[in-house]
Fold this sequence. Notes:
The chain is mainly beta. The chain is built from no helices and eight strands. It has a single domain (4-83), classed as Jelly Rolls (Sandwich).
Amino acid sequence: MAFNTGTISITTTATLIIASNTSQIKRMLQNKDVATVYIGSDNSVTTVNGFPIQPGETLNIGDFNGTIYGIVAAGTNDIYFTED
Length: 84
């Protein structure tokens, strides 16, 4: 199993953070920027229906290998991720 890391710039359009990968089941997202990032499992995520990750917050997701998308209310915001 490979360990992947990266940084994604999230915009006001649903942005793919992590693609579906059946060999990767543990994910961690860390919002190190200034805006709240809202996440969901597909590109229909919005700031209303997405799960919020506040600035400075880390979210650990276990036993999930589907896609993760993010969106912000305004501007852009970087989010860091790892998966293994």
